[in-house]
């Protein structure tokens, strides 16, 4: 599946993770025809042109931005207007090695190709999606790709990059101006009684607070005891009052796109277990059922098994990026498909291919642990393989910008 903004061309060239070597020995094969097509489509989120006289710091900036995004291709020897000016610099590969070693932190692996066109040489550099994000240039700046340009990451974007690297866990971040009053102590008591045989409700308040601190449900923020994001999502009273992005938007359309007539729309709120249960029930309520005749009887056929819907929704709420405050999970039912869209790219080490075979790198370790205890997860990475086995070619996965989308075709 191609998820690159540059179109099918880049998908043909491909991006893969490679081990770092002291020299750029790995070659990628780009034909003259492919190069011409890349140039004709112009610069975009994953293709950049650079003159042969480009300075090392500019190349480092481009490579860093691509690696912090979804990867890309840098064409050296092509002007901004697509004119081929060519590369005459000797030892081009060694020059790039020095840039990746001395101008980028941490060092990156690259693939290169020299293509002859119009009597000139164009040097193509393929930068894979970085596995050691975030990357920065030697001057301490974190660059990201924004359309066909680069810019330094905002505080929110930088936070997401650190999350993807597993260096920061936003699900145990403090939520300002919260307290014990924002938590449902009955729910917490039931949890500890059921899964740990701890009589939480019978403990003194100081002991309860101590447990909540050790369990990362509570934390300190500027000297104040407050709830963590995960604690509020799992055990909070009306968690969407503090975290509006944690709601789920559910909609049913009488057509195949969002411009079609709207049949129903709901804003689903509550704790994560409540979100999962409510949303799965709504999908089952509105999901059409096909039927066939076997003998003299009609047999109803479930288009999307309940376990598939439930697994997809569990993954959405557990793995979404909660630092993206302007986006909610959306569950849209069209006449031909069900779409579940969750904010957040796949973490650093994951790709769309890897998740098909059970590879996982949880962004929200706290949420995953508690949802596992609550029997929504089994922690074995079987969810996506199970979905594929049940749905076959009727399921598709996409990364679109900062969104991850599952499509189930009816």
Number of strands: 18
Q: How far apart lie the N and C ends?
A: 19 Å
The side-by-side strand order for the widest beta sheet comes to 12-11-15-16-18-17
Low-pLDDT residue spans: 1-25
Whole-number count of domains: 3
Count of individual helical segments: 13
Helical fraction: 25-40%
Short description:
With 410 residues, the protein is an alpha+beta fold.
Describe this structure in words.
The protein has 410 residues and is α+β, with helices and mostly antiparallel strands. It has 3 domains: 8-153, 2-Layer Sandwich (Methyltransferase, Cobalt-precorrin-4 Transmethylase, Domain 2); 174-227, no CATH class; 245-409, Heat Shock Protein 90, CATH 3.30.565. The chain has 13 helices and 18 strands. The chain has helices spanning 8-13, 32-40, 56-68, 92-102, 155-164, 185-196, 205-214, 229-235, 272-286, 306-319, 352-355, 365-373, 383-391; strands at 47-50, 72-76, 104-105, 111-117, 120-127, 136-137, 143-146, 149-152, 218-221, 224-227, 248-254, 261-268, 289-294, 297-302, 329-333, 337-343, 395-400, 403-409. Strands 12-11-15-16-18-17 form a 6-stranded mixed β-sheet. The longest helix has 15 residues, at 272-286. The chain is globular. The relative contact order is 0.09. Residues 1-25 have low confidence and may be disordered.
Keywords for this structure?
410 residues, alpha+beta, Methyltransferase, Cobalt-precorrin-4 Transmethylase, Domain 2, Heat Shock Protein 90, 3 domains, six-stranded mixed β-sheet, four-stranded mixed β-sheet, 23% strand, globular, disordered N terminus
């Amino acid at each position: 599946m191609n998820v690159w903004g540059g179109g099918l061309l880049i998908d043909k060239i491909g991006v893969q993770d490679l081990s770092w070597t002291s020299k750029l020995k790995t070659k990628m094969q780009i034909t003259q025809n492919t190069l011409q097509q890349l140039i004709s489509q112009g610069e975009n989120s994953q293709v950049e042109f650079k003159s042969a006289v480009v300075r090392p710091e500019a190349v480092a900036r481009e490579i860093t931005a691509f690696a912090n995004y979804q990867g890309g291709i840098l064409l050296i020897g092509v002007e901004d207007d697509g004119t081929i000016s060519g590369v005459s610099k000797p030892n081009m590969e060694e020059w790039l090695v020095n840039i990746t070693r001395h101008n980028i932190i941490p060092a990156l692996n690259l693939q290169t190709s020299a293509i002859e066109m119009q009597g000139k040489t164009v040097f193509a550099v393929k930068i894979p999606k970085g596995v050691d994000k975030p990357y920065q240039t030697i001057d301490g700046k974190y660059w990201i790709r924004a359309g066909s340009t680069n810019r330094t990451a905002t505080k929110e974007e930088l936070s997401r990059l650190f999350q993807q690297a597993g260096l920061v866990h936003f699900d145990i971040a403090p939520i300002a101006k919260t307290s014990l009053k924002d938590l449902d102590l009955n729910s917490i008591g039931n949890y500890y009684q059921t899964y740990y045989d701890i009589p939480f409700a019978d403990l003194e308040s100081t002991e309860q607070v101590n447990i909540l601190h050790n369990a990362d449900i509570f934390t300190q923020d500027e000297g104040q005891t407050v709830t963590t994001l995960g604690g509020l999502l799992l055990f909070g009273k009306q968690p969407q009052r503090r975290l509006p992005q944690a709601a789920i938007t559910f909609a049913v359309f009488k057509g195949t796109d969002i411009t079609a007539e709207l049949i129903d729309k709901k804003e689903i709120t509550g704790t994560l277990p409540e979100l999962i249960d409510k949303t799965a029930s709504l999908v089952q309520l509105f999901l059409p059922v096909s039927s066939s005749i076997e003998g003299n009887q009609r047999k109803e056929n479930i288009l999307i098994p309940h376990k598939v819907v439930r697994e997809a929704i569990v993954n959405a709420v557990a793995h979404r990026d909660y630092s993206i405050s302007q986006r909610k999970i959306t569950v849209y039912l069209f006449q031909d498909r069900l779409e579940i869209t969750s904010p957040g790219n796949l973490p650093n080490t994951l790709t769309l291919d890897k998740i098909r075979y059970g590879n996982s790198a949880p962004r929200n370790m706290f949420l995953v642990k508690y949802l596992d205890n609550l029997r929504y997860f089994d922690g074995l990475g079987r969810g996506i393989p199970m979905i594929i086995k049940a749905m076959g070619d009727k399921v598709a996965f996409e990364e679109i910008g900062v969104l991850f989308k599952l499509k189930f075709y009816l």
